[in-house]
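Sample intake — DnaJ domain family protein
Collected from: Candida parapsilosis
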Amino acid sequence: MSEDLDRILSIEESSLNRNREIDRILACNEQDFFAITEINPLTTTFDVIPSLITKIYRKKSLLIHPDKTDHPRASEAFDRLKKAQKVLATTDESEQDFKEKQRLMSIYAAFHSNEVPLSFNDPINVAIRSKVNEVVENELAHSELERLAKVSEETRKSEIQKHLREEVELKRKMESEWEKTRDTRVQNWRKYSNKIEKKGKKKKQKPKVLA
């Protein structure tokens, strides 16, 4: 009986840990890959990150995998973890992921203080992540505004192009209709010309002289 109870409690604790980790990841800014993976870039050298993220990803992916939990947003958290692993693991400087990693590290470096605690959840580190989050959010907002402006401009250009295409199509149809009625117009013109010519001949006839 005691063994069964211990097993049940162990399962419940494991499930609770999974849900807590999923909620923690979802609470992070989805672009702060260091926060998602609980890596402090201010206390971790750049070259070590790829190998470190491999170990962390293996552990966390097993913990929050959607097949191992009934959390309704497990898939979303897992996707964020995969994205973070992809960005932080890259070592190819030509890759966009590498540039994203460098950019994020530079934001963290801007808030570097003389004393950075090793503990990830130390209040100082929490405060730094909060400031980083603000910068990232502002960047995302700016990017979204640029995207909307670009979409608006593309929509405007698309409408202009559509209008021009409609004008060209209308002109083509008018020319086609004009060509289709060419024979009819020629015939009508000839009839009209003949009619005018006949009237002219009648006017030129000499009047009859009465005896």
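Post-analysis note: The CA atoms of residues 191 and 197 lie 10 Å apart.
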